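lol ok so funny story. i was supposed to be doing the assay writeup but got distracted and ended up predicting the structure for this chain instead. priorities right. anyway since i did it might as well share w the group, maybe its usefull for someone
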Amino acid sequence: MIAGSKKILVVDDDQDIREIIMYILESEGYQVSGLDNGSGVLQTVAQIRPDILLLDVQLGDRDGRDICRELKEQSTTQDLPIIMISANSGWEAIREKQCKADDFLAKPFDISDLVNHVRRFAA
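and the output, tada:
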């Protein structure tokens, strides 16, 4: 599949980071949507059915790891690739919460790192 046929949902409560990620991925040809909080993630995933989810660990209203775990426990979303992103946590914090994320990207990140992480799951 080409990048343009892949839908990505970016969830980050930091507007600047969310918009930068969205801009970068849109410039790579992906269809990108964004959310600024965790409360609407499950509903939005059900509506737009993204191919990849980039999910911040620490959202203002919810813990991204809990959202990740909920998605991985549902049969309709268990195979959705989830890339957790965080400036304050690493893979160990992800594993401790047992959220079964597919990948982790530390902030700040290089543009090439972001693109490479997404391409892994877009192939």
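DSSP finds five helices and five strands in the chain. The radius of gyration is 13 Å.
back to the writeup now i swear
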